[in-house]
């Protein structure tokens, strides 16, 4: 495969190479070292290309510009383990297949809510989410997949500020609540709500916080700062139906200091 791989690189100059199908052979058998040595030392993309970790059955979560999981697992069934500080990416299909599978029914497909929850979970833990789409034989994206993509796009249009170019918030002050996820960007903290909260959202250990807003909502939230604690309460009259997001919600805390 090395001549074909070199041809692809020389002709198309990719920025990312996602290798796959390595699980039966080690990197020596696949001659991965030979190709990667050429890629990083002689190829036209040697100073810019990024590769994943699938270059032999022993290389996942050990070697690569970024590590990969799929359907939340690597073949060792241990995920990325202690390597969460290394760039990583979760990949999966909307259903149980990567390509188009005409035998999949609606019960095989994740809902828009489930996919958005996966997206925010991976990003809040420092990862990327690669969602595979399987066109049919005519090149058309199945309608059920189109619906999911449109829903994700609508959600990102409102809440993308909490996703793009963000970093996970790893503070010991982070509340332990499975329905709350957090990202940071600049001086802003983003609280991602997987479920509509029935009780106030409380942050502790703060030195200060500025404006608090619910992305996509023009009204104001009730907030109280006292002795290093920020309490955020939603107006009792506010319902999910009034909001542009129907699957998950984001509170933005500007000028966040701890």
UniProtKB/TrEMBL annotation:
Its EC number is 3.2.1.51. GO terms for molecular function: alpha-L-fucosidase activity. Pfam families: Alpha_L_fucos, Fucosidase_C. GO terms for cellular component: lysosome. InterPro entries: FUC_metazoa-typ (IPR016286), Fucosidase_C (IPR031919), GH (IPR017853), Glyco_hydro_29 (IPR000933), Glyco_hydro_29_N (IPR057739), Glyco_hydro_b (IPR013780). Keywords: Glycosidase, Hydrolase, Signal. Residues 1-161 form the Glycoside hydrolase family 29 N-terminal domain. Alpha-L-fucosidase is responsible for hydrolyzing the alpha-1,6-linked fucose joined to the reducing-end N-acetylglucosamine of the carbohydrate moieties of glycoproteins. This is alpha-L-fucosidase. The lineage of its organism: unclassified sequences, metagenomes, ecological metagenomes.
């Amino acid at each position: 495969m090395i001549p074909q791989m070199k041809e692809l690189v020389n002709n198309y100059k990719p920025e990312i190479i996602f290798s796959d199908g390595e699980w039966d052979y080690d990197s020596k058998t696949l001659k991965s070292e030979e190709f990667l040595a050429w890629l990083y030392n002689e190829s036209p993309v040697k100073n810019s290309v990024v590769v994943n970790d699938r270059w032999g059955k022993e290389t996942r979560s050990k070697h690569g510009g970024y590590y990969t999981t799929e359907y939340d697992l690597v073949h060792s069934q241990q995920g990325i383990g202690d390597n969460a500080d290394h760039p990583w990416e979760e990949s999966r299909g909307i259903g149980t297949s990567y390509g188009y599978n005409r035998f999949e029914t609606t019960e095989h497909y994740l809902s828009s809510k489930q996919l958005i929850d996966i997206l925010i979970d991976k990003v809040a833990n420092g990862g990327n989410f690669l969602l595979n789409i399987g066109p049919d034989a005519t090149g058309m994206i199945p309608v059920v997949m189109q619906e999911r993509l449109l829903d994700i796009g609508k959600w990102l249009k409102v809440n993308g500020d909490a996703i793009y170019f963000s970093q996970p918030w790893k503070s010991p002050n982070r509340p332990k609540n499975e329905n709350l996820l957090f990202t940071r960007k600049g001086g802003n903290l983003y609280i991602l709500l997987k479920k509509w909260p029935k009780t106030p959202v409380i942050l502790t250990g703060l030195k200060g916080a500025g404006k608090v807003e619910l992305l996509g909502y023009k009204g104001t939230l009730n907030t109280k700062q006292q002795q290093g604690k920020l309490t955020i309460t939603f107006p009792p009259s506010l319902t999910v139906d009034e909001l542009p997001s129907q699957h998950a919600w984001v509170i933005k805390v500007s000028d966040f200091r701890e």
